[in-house]
Amino acid sequence: MISECFDALARLMSGAPTRVTAPYKINNDTVALEARFPRGSIKKYNPKHILLREAITKGAQLFSAPHAHKKEELRSKKEEIFGLKQLLAASLAREVMLIHRIYELETELRSEHKVKTLIPRSDRP
User: Fold this and answer.
1) CB of 56 within 8 A of CB of 9?
2) Domain of life here (predicted)?
3) DSSP assignment of 102-119, as one string?
4) Structural domain range at position 12
């Protein structure tokens, strides 16, 4: 049983398991399942499993290290997206304010000069 579990741990660490499907975490249960044993087969109180449990713990730490970097990268990208969304919302609010101000000024100009339409400066002769 122990040798099958060490082989299963090696397969899980290399990313080529035969029974467990990705995504997976390396722990006692996934090693047992990969070694074709039921969950809970690797016991804490069994003295035969001490080396195996230590190897699983070390393997889990090594296996999760690259994933932790990806999680940190994903978190930073999400923060960047959030900041960009805030900038976009502020820009759109500013544009709406300016459009509203232009409308007010055009309305004021029409009422003062009794002009029906305003001709843009570029279209004037």
Assistant:
1) yes
2) Bacteria
3) HHHHHHHHHHHHT-S-PP
4) 2-115
State pLDDT tens for residues 41-92: 888 888 888 788 888 888 887 877 666 677 788 899 999 999 999 999 999 9
Q: Is the pTM of this model over 0.70?
A: no
Q: What is the pLDDT of residues 105-122, one digit of tens each?
A: 988 888 887 666 656 666
Domain assignment of residue 122, yes or no? no
Count of domains observed in the chain: 1
Residue 123 belongs to a domain: no
Residue 52 CB-density burial (10 A; 0-12 exposed, 13-18 middle, 19+ buried):
buried
- The Cα 53–Cα 34 span in angstroms is 15
In a domain, 43, yes or no: yes
